[in-house]
Give the backbone structure.
Amino acid sequence: MRRLFPVTDETVARTPAEAPIEEGAGGDGAGGVGRAHLVDREWSLVELAAAYAYPELGPQGAAGAGGPEVWLRANMVSTLDGAAQHDGRSQPISSAADMRIFGMLRALADVVIAGAETVRQEGYRPARARAEFAEMREAAGQGPVPAIAVVSASLNLDFSLPLFTSPQVPTLILTGAAAAPDRIAAAEKAGARVVVAGDGVGVEPARAVRALAELGHTRLLTEGGPRLLGQLVAAGVLDELCLTVAPMLSAGNAQRIAGGPSVAVPQRFALASLLEDEGFLFSRYRRP
């Protein structure tokens, strides 16, 4: 993996005299210019954590410097031709580096938000504690694992699955006030915590963000799917998009990373960073 943006002394091309030459790379001609900064290597977890750190949050952050009180980022993957999945799942268009970043983003988050259909299709399981992230999470004042929050209007979920019966922290279900009482009772019996975040059948995105923040979850991560991400975009509550662009073409009729009705005026995000590994691009775009 290598950093393409922001440009630093590690990413900018150097002259042959300035560039340290990797052993065996050769020191003359185009092949020897700036070769060191072009060599891929596996980034440490510390480097990844720094690259994907959340901003300082809330009045308590940065001595009350006025940072946001809650931050919602999304993590999605797309092929070159815009497919967010292949055969209904994201795994076929992912990579080892993408999964490593996926794990890091979860490790940095207080809660992972996913739509019910994504939970079903991707076979979601409870987040598991990982020794390599334990010290980092403890230093950030977090528990050993992020909570999983499932967005569902119908609560048509299999509550016998480990996601509900054996998580390290209770799974949250975000739903509307009009959800069927028997389904709410079934969810709570299984050990899930139901959070009402809408006056009607469905969930209101801004209200869901507030409800999670009130529970102490201010570093939010959503993994979609496309319908949920589209709702978050339309509601204007998304702060950051971490988008992996896979060097693949899939054709077909797969969904884009965000679906649903279009917004009246497209919102422009600013590029915060760009990494590359074996042709995969790992971008971060933030609300200006």
